[in-house]
TrEMBL record:
Major subcellular location class: membrane
MF (Gene Ontology): transmembrane transporter activity
Family designation: Belongs to the vitamin uptake transporter (VUT/ECF) (TC 2.A.88) family. Q precursor transporter subfamily.
Entry keyword ATP-binding: no
Residue ranges of the TM segments: 12-31, 43-63, 75-101, 107-127, 139-164, 184-209
Protein name: Probable queuosine precursor transporter
Species of provenance: Pseudomonas borbori
Length: 219
């Protein structure tokens, strides 16, 4: 499949950066909200974060490995700051007021730092695996393998950094269980929903790009 022309990929790159930041901030908030699924403890963040891997895989496919890494480089520091701010303001799911920003919150800072490190490690692995497998005839192997490995590293890096010996007794006790269930949910959501969605979006983009490029050339 041809890569996107410059008139399309530049605004696409900006949109991807904004999308990554949105998902990271939302996931950092949702990971503070535990839930029980079939008797297993997890968090609502398990349902939001797989969107990033879908976006990254499409970026590598359409723009290449270099632009995908540019997205990560431009996102990680702003997302770290924004994640801390949002998590402090809405700790445990309720608005704490602007006064909460005046005092440094170590618990939330650990979550933001864990998210930062896990995001960078998981996304770089996802990009590397996807790029190695992207030319295989079976289109689904690259997104499936990169999602499996990238989510594994991301999930356990995040929970170990954020909640090992945490000041939150519930998360300190259950983080391994929560991380395992979180990974299982991410994997199920990604393989059952996002890999097929990746294929559909890729086909739609492949049909749309030639038309968009033709229209741009006439302007």
């Amino acid at each position: 499949m041809p890569t996107l022309p410059a008139t399309i990929w530049r605004p696409a790159l900006a949109g991807l950066i904004a999308f990554h930041m949105l998902i990271i901030i939302a996931s950092n908030y949702l990971v503070q909200l535990p839930m029980s699924l079939f008797g297993w403890q997890t968090t609502w963040g398990a349902f939001s974060f797989p969107f990033i891997f879908l976006a990254t895989d499409l970026t590598v496919r359409l723009l290449g490995k270099g632009p995908a890494r540019q997205v990560i480089a431009r996102v990680m520091l702003p997302a770290l700051i924004a994640s801390y701010g949002v998590s402090v303001l809405f700790q445990s799911g309720s608005f704490a007021g602007l006064a909460a920003l005046q005092e440094f919150n170590l618990f939330v800072a650990r979550i933001a730092l864990a998210s930062f490190l896990a995001y960078v490690l998981g996304q770089l692995l996802d990009i590397q695996v996807f790029d190695r497998l992207r030319n295989l005839r079976q289109w689904w192997l690259a997104p499936a393998a990169s999602t499996l490995l990238g989510n594994l590293l991301d999930t356990f890096a995040f929970f170990s950094i954020a909640f090992w010996h945490s000041s939150d007794p519930f998360m300190a006790e259950h983080w391994i269980e929560i991380a395992s269930v979180d990974y299982a949910i991410k994997l199920a959501v990604s393989l059952l929903l996002f890999v097929p969605l990746y294929g559909m979006l890729l086909s739609a983009i492949a049909r749309a790009v030639p038309r968009r490029a033709a229209l741009s050339s006439r302007v």
